[in-house]
Design a protein that fits this description.
By secondary structure, this protein is mainly α. Helices cover 71% and strands 0% of the residues. The protein contains 14 helices and no strands.
């Protein structure tokens, strides 16, 4: 079909508008990327756009050589791996159990799980609960409270409901128990929703910093995102990292350090966000698919 002049004009406007939005969204990140690769003392003069003027890797050396940063990165990666695996296991097990219409008290369980989704205890009761469970200043405060999300369970349950019940009945005739049916039958057939929910859980664990802010004071279990928050808010920590790196560099003048808090902040921002920025474009389709999965009726 031939496109009219009005349609061509409309399409051209859409392309220009999307290009403008792309520039507006990408420029701040590219600017910080350029600052992170630029000499700190040169950055102080201003004028850095998306290309460094004086290339250097010392900003990243200062960040990656910092013991606190490396420890926070290890905690974050461990949290993502353990939290995603445990959250996916609990979500799928709960979805499979609540899928059974003959489950005693099924509606009561659904109601009890639904109420906290809309009505929560609040910050102080949560703190008192976590303290009574010895989760304060513990790595497990990142894992146990976020192990079950009601919405994720609903999406998983809706997808499991689309699998023919005849397959489960055949497996039972062959002598399979509930665990075997779940992991050997439902799991292989549910990989699209498994990938979607795994991605949701992993992104949630990677981006979360408020849990550390509220329930963790020990520096041994602080996360990468919380450290980024501190660096963006506290100039003292940035100055400390800059001074430490400047003192380690031989032949540098203390009066004109090549690493500044601004350059350290930019390098920390890039290192903390780069993994999710690199992964997100390739898994974005799973976010869209998850919205569609949630609309499936039983």
């Amino acid at each position: 079909m031939r496109t009219t002049k009005g349609e061509k004009l409309f399409n051209g406007f859409n392309v220009l508008f999307m290009l403008l939005l792309s520039v507006l969204f990408l420029y701040p990140y590219l600017n910080q990327l350029a600052v992170s690769f630029n000499d700190g003392s040169d950055t102080a003069y201003g004028g850095i756009t998306i290309f460094p003027r004086v290339w250097t890797l010392e900003n990243y050396e200062a960040v990656l050589s910092n013991e606190s940063f490396l420890r926070a990165a290890f905690v974050t990666v461990s949290r993502v791996v353990i939290g995603t695996a445990s959250g996916l296991f609990v979500t799928m097990a709960a979805a499979y159990a609540l899928l059974k219409k003959d489950l005693p008290g099924r509606n009561l369980f659904l109601t009890m799980l639904l109420i906290p989704t809309f009505i929560q205890g609040g910050m102080i009761p949560n703190f008192m609960l976590f303290r009574s469970l010895d989760l304060i200043n513990s790595f497990w405060v990142y894992i146990f409270p976020s192990m079950f999300v009601f919405y994720n369970m609903l999406v998983m349950r809706a997808y499991l409901g689309t699998i023919p019940i005849s397959l489960e009945e055949s497996a039972k005739l062959d002598g399979a128990n509930s665990a075997q049916i779940l992991f050997k039958l439902y799991l292989p057939l549910s990989m699209p929703v498994v990938a979607t929910i795994s991605l949701w859980i992993a992104v949630m664990h990677w981006n979360d910093w408020t849990t550390t802010l509220l329930y963790v004071q020990s520096s041994n279990v602080q996360t990468l995102q919380f450290m980024l928050y501190k660096i963006l808010k506290e100039s003292e920590l940035m100055m400390q990292m800059a001074v430490e790196r400047s003192m380690q560099s031989s032949g540098e003048s203390a009066a004109s350090p090549r690493i500044t808090p601004t350059s350290v902040r930019a390098a920390t921002l890039i290192v903390s966000t780069l993994p999710i920025v690199m992964v997100y474009p390739f898994v974005q389709k799973h976010f869209v698919k998850g919205v569609m999965l949630g609309a499936i009726k039983e």
